[in-house]
Amino acid sequence: MINNIINQLTGQKFGRLIVLKRSEQNSKSGNAMWICLCDCGNEVNVIGSHLRNNHTTSCGCNRISKVAKGHSKERLYRTWGKMHKRCSDPKHDRYKWYGAKGISVCDEWKDFLVFREWAQANGYNDELTIDRINSKGNYCPENCQWVDMKVQANNRSNNRIIRYNEIDYTVSQLAEAYNLSSFTIFNRLKLGWSLDRIVGVTERNDG
Q: In the 3-class helix/strand/coil scheme, how is 74-99 assigned residue by residue?
C-alpha cells in the first residue's frame, strides 16, 4: 500500500512542484513528507496531504515574488536571485562550485525582504558585493559581509575567493573560466589590474 502511494506521488507535479521522492523524515506531527523540486530550482519538503489538496504549490517563491515585485529592478534583488540560483539550480553554470559542494542559502534569506533588511543594516551599497567569510560555509548572516571587489582582488592566495560578475572564483577557477593561466592572473593582480582587464586581455597580448 505504501509503495502504491509512493508511486502515485513520485514524478507528479502540483503547481510549481515536482515530487522527487519520499523524504526519510516525517513532519513533527508524524505526517509523511516528500522532497519536491520547485520550478525556481529550490528543493523543499512538503507534507503529502498538502500536495494533494493544493495547499502547497511552490517552495514559497510565489509569495516572495509578489512581495518582492516592487524591488525587482534593484541591484540587490539581482544579487539575491543569483545567490539562490548558483546554490539551488543544477542547470546554473556555477552550481558545481556551490550547490554541488553543499553550499546553500539559509532559510530566512529565501525571503528577499528579510535579506534586503539585513543588507541595509550591514552597510550595503551598489559598489559592494556579498562575500562569504568562510568560503566553505553557507550564505547566512553570520558568514556574510559586504566588500569592495578590490579587497578580494588584492589577495594573493590561490585558495582565496575572488568575486567577479556576482560569482565567486578561486584563482584557478577564474583562470579556467576565462582560458588564462593562474600565473598570468597572479601577475596581473600584482600589477593592480582591474578584474575586467584581467579577464578581458588574452595572454598573447599580456605585456
A: CHHHHHHHHHHHHHHCCCCCCHHHCH
Rounded Cα–Cα distance for residues 30 and 83 (Å): 33
Across 116-134, average pLDDT: 89
* Confidence bin at 65 (pLDDT 50/70/90): low
Residues 6+ apart with CB under 8 A from 126: 75, 76
Q: What is the pLDDT of residue 205?
A: 40
pLDDT exceeds cutoff 50 at 207: no
Say which residues have a Cβ less than 8 Å from residue 125's Cβ, sequence separation at least 6: 146
pTM of the complete model beyond 0.90? no
**Three cell numbers at 2?**
505504501
Q: Exposed, middle or buried: residue 144 (CB in 10 Å: 0-12, 13-18, 19+)?
A: buried
8 Å CB contact between 171 and 162? yes
Is the predicted pLDDT of residue 77 greater than 80, yes or no? yes
Task: Residue 14: name the closest of 4, 26, 29, 44 by CA.
Answer: 44
Whole-number Å distance between alpha carbons of 71 and 74: 6
Pairing, β 33-38 against β 43-47: antiparallel
Residue found under cell 577557477: 173
